[in-house]
Amino acid sequence: MQNSERVNFASKIGAILAAAGSAVGLGNVWRFPYETGNHGGAAFILIYLGCVFLFGLPIMIAEFVIGRRAKASTGEAFKVLAPRSGWKYVGYTGVLTGFLILGYYSVVSGWTLEYIFQSATGNLLGKSANDFVSMFQDFSKSPWRPLIWLLIFVGMTHIIIVKGVQKGIEQASKIMMPMLFIIIVLLAVCAVMLPGAMKGLEFLLKPDFSKVTSDAVLGAMGQAFFSLSLGMGCLSTYASYFSRETRLGHTAVSVCVIGTCISVLSGFIIFPAAFSVGIQPDAGPSLIFITIPNVFQQAFGSVPVFACISAVLFYILLAMAALTSTISLHEVPTAFLHEKFGFTRSRAAWIVTIGSFLIGVVSSLALGDWSDVKIGGMNLFDALDFLTAKIMLPITGMFTALFVSWKLDKKMVRDEVTNRGTLKASYYPALIFILRYITPIGILFIFINELGWLG
Ligand code: PHE
């Protein structure tokens, strides 16, 4: 079902900007470094790059083809392109995954607001590395404070989705994204110059293949899907707003390159900084919240005003990057409820907002009062992240690849990739080959390998 409300969303913005706004977020600055830290550094990054190339890039083009062709959000797109078949469940799984991710992602987004507040009030000044560790632990384990920030963040996302001020946000992100990029480069330069930073650089650049377990490979694959917003129909929903002239391959390459650069640059901040003050690189989700304040402290501590202003700026930009991602996560289930069940957009948005807030509450408490509740040895926050990023996204991504390469009419796919024959797109045969064989077999292989390892 088409309707003017949905089509308005992001219709006037550049395709690259919209997709990059969704892709660049906490996945690059928060999740990439801690996954890299957990899995031993440079070797993980190499595997990650392989996953971006073999899974990320082709699946991104596949999602673009589906979205632009079907002109519907992901929940309905599979149904439009393959009526009366089971393929629609691929779209539905994507919707569910997006909804679950939105819940715990908003918790971490809320943490960025706390750090804007802390840096603006000067609380990050004059502290030692250990102070930052206990500061983060006290905060994340306390029952109320993270929940208040969660509520504020979920509220911000809700207002933007309902009021349809995406255009404003995307205009703002045109300025914010380059600013975030510049500040990340500056911080990386500062971090690399810290005393003892060499060890961090070594961790980042010198691969130790003995650390490559099946777990690390699964982690790298999950990170590629998560960070590029793939496997839940987010980018296919965005592609339904692309114009006929948007070059799908070109857009996908741009988004992959931008996202990967920001991730790797974040590594150049975190690891030199962590090794410099003796923080273990496998500190998990807390990693950036205990290392980045240290970079500000050590690099600019002698000029407190400058330290404060730059820290506030950094966390504002990070919160903005998170916001453009939560908007895209929210849009998928909202558009689905609106199109499938005929709810008004506002009611659909309320359902998603309340539901994701409740998931957020559970994930947040899982790090404090409820940390004893475990599934498969993980607290509920980690379990949710594991289930969505490492299982659900790759599975949906695999079926997306199969759908485009086996099920869809090849003339139609070629038409989309070449903009109805107006582009050369000489990569087309390779794309179909990779989507048909390499991507699905690769994903299956990684799953089977992991099961074997677990057993
Ligand atoms: N890619 C986003 C990030 O890296 C997170 C995200 C995942 C957004 C899935 C949309 C869909 O922060």
UniProtKB/TrEMBL annotation:
It is found in: Membrane. The chain crosses the membrane at residues 12-30, 42-66, 87-107, 147-165, 177-197, 217-241, 253-279, 299-327, 348-367, 387-406, 427-448. It is a multi-pass membrane protein. Belongs to the sodium:neurotransmitter symporter (SNF) (TC 2.A.22) family. Keywords: Membrane, Symport, Transmembrane, Transmembrane helix, Transport. One of its GO terms (cellular component) is membrane. GO terms for molecular function: symporter activity. This is Transporter. It comes from Phocaeicola salanitronis (strain DSM 18170 / JCM 13657 / CCUG 60908 / BL78).
